[in-house]
Amino acid sequence: MKKLLNTLFITQPDVYLSLDGDNIVLLKEQERLGRLPLHNLEAVVSFGYTGASPALMGYCAERNISLVFFTMNGRFLARVIGQSRGNVVLRKKQYRVSDDEHMSARIARNFIIGKIYNHKWIIERMTRDYPLRVDVNQFKEVSHYLSSVIHEVRICEDLERLRGLEGQAATSYNKIFNQMILQQKNDFYFHARSRRPPLDNVNAMLSFAYTLLANDAASALEGVGLDAYVGFLHRDRPGRASLALDIMEELRGVYADRFVLSLINKRILNKDAFLKKENGAIIMTDEARRKFLKAWQAKKQEKITHPYLGEKISWGLVPHAQALLLARYLRNDLDEYPPFLWK
C-alpha cells in the first residue's frame, strides 16, 4: 500500500477492499492489512483480481473518488466513477491543449528534456563505473553535447523544431550505445535502431521492452482518466496511443534501455534466445519472452526515490506517478509538467 498525490496504490496481490465507516479496509484471507480514511483521497488504484465490496464502490462513486483496477502485470481493467462525473473536464482540457500546437510544445519539451537528461546520466554513469571498458573521451563529448541540446529544448516552442532536437540527441546517444554492451559482444551489438522488423538481437529486445513500457504508460493514463490516444509531442494517428508514447519518452533510456543492457551484460539471455526469419527479422523465442517478462516484472518491484516527489516508490509505479503529475498540470494544479529526471 502506497499513498501518492492523494492516490492510494494497492500493490499487494490478492487483497480485497471493503468499507468500514468512512475508511477503506484492506483484507487478505480475512486478515486486516490496513485501514485508511477515504475523505482526503482522490483515487484508489488496485493491482489484482480480488475486487472490492459494492458498499465501497458506492461510497467512492458518490464522493467522486475513482476506483481503478489493474491486473498484477499492470494492464488496465476498469474504473468505477460516479454518475455524470469523473474526468470529462480533464479530457476536454487535454483535447484543447492537443489541438493547440504552441500549448502542446510547452508540455512536449519537458518530455524531451526528461529523455535527453536521462540519456546524459546513463552516459555519465557508464564513464564512472566502467572507465576502462568505454571510450571516456567520446562519452564525455556526447554528454556535453546533450547538455547543450537540453538548453535549446528549454527555450523552444515549436513542435517541429523540438522533434529535430530530439532526433539529433538520439543520434548522438545511439552512436555510443554499442559500447554499453559489455558482455557477449559477438552476439549482441547495436549499430542503428531497426524497428519493423528488428534486424538484430539487441533491436529485438529493445522493441519488446518499448512495447511493454508503452502498454504500462497507456494503462497509467487510463487510470487517471486521460486519453492515451491524444498526445502532445506525438500527434493523432488512428490506433496509436500517442500520449503513452509521449510520457514513455523520458523513461525509454533509464527504464527500457538499461533493462535490456542488464539482460545482456548479466547473461540472462544469450544467442539461443533468438530466431531469424526468412525476411531477416529477428524474433525472440517463447522461452526467451517468458524470461524477459519475468525479469521485467521483477524490475517493476525494485524501489527508487522519485526525483520530483521525493518519495520511495517501485519502478512499476513511475508511469503512474508521471500520469498523475500530467493530470495535475492539466488541471492547473502545477505550473508545468515535471519530467522524470534520473541521476
TrEMBL record:
<dbReference type="GO" id="GO:0004520">
    <property type="term" value="F:DNA endonuclease activity"/>
</dbReference>
<dbReference type="InterPro" id="IPR002729">
    <property type="entry name" value="CRISPR-assoc_Cas1"/>
</dbReference>
<keyword id="KW-0479">Metal-binding</keyword>
<dbReference type="Pfam" id="PF01867">
    <property type="entry name" value="Cas_Cas1"/>
</dbReference>
<keyword id="KW-0255">Endonuclease</keyword>
<dbReference type="InterPro" id="IPR042206">
    <property type="entry name" value="CRISPR-assoc_Cas1_C"/>
</dbReference>
<dbReference type="GO" id="GO:0046872">
    <property type="term" value="F:metal ion binding"/>
</dbReference>
<dbReference type="GO" id="GO:0051607">
    <property type="term" value="P:defense response to virus"/>
</dbReference>
<dbReference type="InterPro" id="IPR019856">
    <property type="entry name" value="CRISPR-assoc_Cas1_DVULG"/>
</dbReference>
<keyword id="KW-0238">DNA-binding</keyword>
<dbReference type="GO" id="GO:0016787">
    <property type="term" value="F:hydrolase activity"/>
</dbReference>
<keyword id="KW-0460">Magnesium</keyword>
<feature type="binding site">
    <location>
        <position position="234"/>
    </location>
    <ligand>
        <name>Mn(2+)</name>
    </ligand>
</feature>
<dbReference type="GO" id="GO:0043571">
    <property type="term" value="P:maintenance of CRISPR repeat elements"/>
</dbReference>
<dbReference type="InterPro" id="IPR042211">
    <property type="entry name" value="CRISPR-assoc_Cas1_N"/>
</dbReference>
<dbReference type="InterPro" id="IPR050646">
    <property type="entry name" value="Cas1"/>
</dbReference>
<comment type="similarity">
    <text>Belongs to the CRISPR-associated endonuclease Cas1 family.</text>
</comment>
<comment type="subunit">
    <text>Homodimer, forms a heterotetramer with a Cas2 homodimer.</text>
</comment>
<keyword id="KW-0051">Antiviral defense</keyword>
<comment type="function">
    <text>CRISPR (clustered regularly interspaced short palindromic repeat), is an adaptive immune system that provides protection against mobile genetic elements (viruses, transposable elements and conjugative plasmids). CRISPR clusters contain spacers, sequences complementary to antecedent mobile elements, and target invading nucleic acids. CRISPR clusters are transcribed and processed into CRISPR RNA (crRNA). Acts as a dsDNA endonuclease. Involved in the integration of spacer DNA into the CRISPR cassette.</text>
</comment>
<keyword id="KW-0464">Manganese</keyword>
<feature type="binding site">
    <location>
        <position position="249"/>
    </location>
    <ligand>
        <name>Mn(2+)</name>
    </ligand>
</feature>
<feature type="binding site">
    <location>
        <position position="166"/>
    </location>
    <ligand>
        <name>Mn(2+)</name>
    </ligand>
</feature>
<keyword id="KW-0540">Nuclease</keyword>
<protein>
    <recommendedName>
        <fullName>CRISPR-associated endonuclease Cas1</fullName>
        <ecNumber>3.1.-.-</ecNumber>
    </recommendedName>
</protein>
<keyword id="KW-0378">Hydrolase</keyword>
<dbReference type="GO" id="GO:0003677">
    <property type="term" value="F:DNA binding"/>
</dbReference>
